[in-house]
Amino acid sequence: MKKIILGIAGEIAGGKGAMTKYIVEKFDGTSLRFSTMLRDILDRLYFEQSRDNMQKLSTSLRSVFGEDLLAKVMADDVRKNDANIIVIDGVRRIDDIKYLKEIPYFKLVYVDTNMKKRYERIVGRGENSDDNQKTFEQFQIDHEKETELQIKGLKNEADFVVDNNGSLEEFYTQIDNIIKKD
């Protein structure tokens, strides 16, 4: 099988994780997440893995070490990975794809989902410690944070756009078509 490297972008709770899980399970891929490096640091510092803490840490690291810091780390992680299919979950900004686009077989996928569906998902899944009690108004405010502002612009940079407003079956069919194209 030819090597496939997919960077997954989309707004909070849009289905990036679901896409990643599906590809990893169905196509025996491997997953890398931008948030993993932030979670590792928060764990080491004994800080809660909340969305707020991850946003603050990301902003701080990038302001001190450069906007492309996380992209450099991720690109090195991808280069060191021998898997045939690699899914990179959590692409958030143009700088995140700067180095990844230099890697052969890299494609950017944007998952497009409306805000109401995304809010229902985030509260239901509770991935971060502060997700379960989040109001819709707080969810809307989360989209105004610095770490979220560039995400919509990635849709214009995407090689593929997946509509995740329908059924799971429709979502999976779109993903299958992407894997088959590569």
Automatic annotation (TrEMBL):
Signal peptide: none annotated. InterPro entries: P-loop_NTPase. PANTHER family: DEPHOSPHO-COA KINASE, UPF0200 PROTEIN MJ1399. This is Dephospho-CoA kinase. It comes from Candidatus Campbellbacteria bacterium RIFOXYC2_FULL_35_25. The lineage of its organism: Bacteria, Candidatus Campbelliibacteriota.
